[in-house]
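Thread: Newbie trying to understand structure tokens

Hi all, I'm a second-year student working on a class project, and my supervisor (Dr. K.) asked me to get a predicted structure for one chain before our next meeting. I've only ever worked with sequences, so writing a 3D structure as a token string is new to me. If someone could post the tokens and maybe explain what I'm looking at, I'd be very grateful. Here's the chain:
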Amino acid sequence: MPTILRKGPYRFYFYSHEPNEPPHIHVDRENFSAKFWLDPVQLSKNIGFARQELRKIQLMVIEHSNDFREAWDGYFSINSG
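---
Reply by user tm_fold:
Sure, no problem. This is what the structure looks like when written as tokens:
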């Protein structure tokens, strides 16, 4: 489960066993978790985050979406063979 970014209380990562899903990023803080698709950036799943905090997280995902996509593409292209 590669961690791509830690920003404040948030950890942004993806699971190494999800190559057949569209590119996305998971975000955790304490016992809360969310999943965002990267293209376009939109919420896929939320466990516990309030709407206002999700909007803040979504803006962080948008800000770093190129980095997340490069990490996704790089990881799964290396590990696909």
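A couple of things are worth pointing out once you decode it. The radius of gyration is 12 Å. The mean pLDDT is 92. Feel free to ask follow-ups in this thread.
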